[in-house]
Specification:
Helix content is 47%, strand content 5%. It has helices at residues 15-20, 29-42, 62-70, 72-77, 80-85, 90-97, 107-110, 120-127, 130-142, 144-154, 158-169, 180-189, 194-210, 233-239, 255-268, 300-305, 340-348, 352-365, 384-396, 410-422, 433-440; strands at 178-179, 219-220, 278-282, 298-299, 309-310, 322-326, 335-338. Helix 8 (120-127) packs parallel to helix 18, helix 9 (130-142) packs across helix 11 and helix 13 (194-210) crosses helix 14. The structure holds calcium ion (CA).
Length: 442
């Protein structure tokens, strides 16, 4: 994606929000929009609530939204010079924008925050279901010839592309109902993401100008992601390919175009051919969990020297590759060493749970087994209110958590580790109910 921070795929319900917090201003911001993108399908016919957004952003107040809606036509027409510079004809611009109206319901999704969240393993269960594995294997068999050619051309693992397809749209069975042009036009003229969505709106017009995808096919999430692997219009513009050589880059109607475009995205974002995404690993007792940090990359060999072993006792196929250690449930659950290709998957969607689901589903599609180590299923995810409370209690105890807004970034995780160490708990940074209870008694 040209701007990874604002990639908007759709299939994960509140996932990155739950795990990393929403609207952190880094790459996870968009997870808010993505996640609520699914709600919009069920509620598509409803009207805007008329309420101000929770972000407190000046462009998200009810007054600002109403005022921007009044100005919608002028705003759209004001984009004509930009459209013209991009080669869009006056006839196409007029035909596509003449009857456009804003869909203000979308404003209810822009600032939406989940009240309840899921635990990491609940998302994995949901996304890597037996049904998704079985259907994915059928997809791989059905399109074997296309996958053969695409793999030869782009060097990207077919199982990963299939996993993306399966998780983004349940293999094309769960695609948004909103017209991409209307959604991106709304977001380009109303609310707090206008700069970003101007570009998406104009990219949508370019696509319509060329006739790559018909307007009827151009439906997607409320944030404008479309097609079975949920490309944003700018992503489409940059990465879509015409693999079946019919003159159109049609990721909606052509399976060869869809598969090759998705592979092209991965290739151009640094996919290493012939490499996996990472490994499930066993972390030894008394491990220094400060090392489990995305910013801390070491070679597999160095991790082995620290006592990290591949789960199930298999040897690592290579020792020189650099990886970081991820422990989503701290010392109570499995560890994972994440390689370069994991980071590439995270460019598709900057959520670790999403990327792990893609990696694990791809392994299962290849015939691999379920994860070997157990999750702490007696634990549950903290609610947003509990997360804020935990931050406030940490701050009260003198630990720096940044802003106590329920969003857990690296500062909060470090604060949890420091508190755990001081309180005689395993300092693994896992925000458990046990840590919260201990803090409440502190
Ligand atoms: Ca084509």
């Amino acid at each position: 994606m040209t701007k990874p921070a604002v990639r908007v795929p759709l299939a994960l319900v509140l996932l990155a929000c739950a795990l990393a917090g929403c609207g952190t201003g880094d790459g996870r911001t968009i997870a808010t929009t993505q996640s609520t993108g699914r709600q919009s399908y069920a509620q598509g016919s409803q009207d805007w609530s008329g309420r101000s957004g929770d972000s407190g952003h000046p462009q998200m107040t009810a007054e600002a939204i109403n005022s921007a809606a009044q100005n919608f036509n002028a705003c759209i027409q004001g984009m004509w010079p930009d459209a013209s510079r991009r080669g869009i004809s006056r006839a196409v611009f007029d035909a596509q924008t003449r009857e456009l109206t804003p869909e203000l319901r979308i404003m209810d999704f822009v600032d939406a925050q989940p009240e309840f969240t899921k635990a990491f393993w609940e998302y994995l269960d949901l996304l890597v279901s037996e049904d998704r594995v079985a259907r994915g294997k059928e997809i791989l068999a059905q399109h074997r010839a296309i996958f053969d050619t695409v793999e030869k051309t782009y060097g990207v693992d077919r199982n990963v592309i299939t996993a993306i397809w399966g998780i983004e749209s349940k293999y094309s069975t769960m695609i948004g109902e909103r017209y991409v042009l209307r959604s991106t036009a709304t977001l380009a003229c109303v609310g707090r993401r206008q700069d970003y969505f101007r570009n998406e709106f104009l990219a949508t017009l370019e696509l319509l100008q060329r006739g790559d995808v018909t307007p009827d096919e151009l439906k997607g999430s409320w944030a404008g992601a479309f097609g079975p692997t949920q490309f944003m219009p700018t992503v489409y513009k940059q990465y879509a390919v015409d693999f079946d050589h019919d003159g159109r880059r049609d990721i909606v109607g052509s399976v060869p175009d869809l598969i090759a475009s998705t592979a092209n995205y991965f290739k151009r974002n640094g996919w290493e051919t012939g490499q996996t995404w990472g490994y499930e690993v066993e972390v030894p007792k008394n491990f220094n969990y400060l090392l489990a940090d995305r910013g801390r990359q070491m070679t597999i060999h160095e991790w082995e020297r620290l006592g990290i072993r591949r789960a199930g006792g298999k040897p690592f196929p290579q020792h020189g590759a650099r990886a970081y250690l991820m422990v989503p449930a701290g010392s109570q659950g499995p560890g994972f060493l994440m390689l370069q290709n994991f980071r590439v998957i995270m460019r598709y969607n900057p959520s670790e749970a999403y990327a792990l689901a893609i990696g694990h589903l791809s392994d299962r599609l290849r015939g691999g087994e379920a994860l070997l180590q157990a999750w702490p299923r007696h634990e549950r995810a903290l609610t947003m209110a509990e997360r804020s409370e935990m931050q406030q209690l940490l701050a009260k105890n003198g630990f720096d958590v940044g802003e106590a807004d329920g969003r857990f970034g690296s500062k909060t995780r470090a604060a949890i580790r420091d508190y755990q160490a001081k309180a005689g708990l395993v300092p693994d940074g896992f925000a458990s109910t046990v840590v919260l209870a201990k803090l409440r008694g502190s």
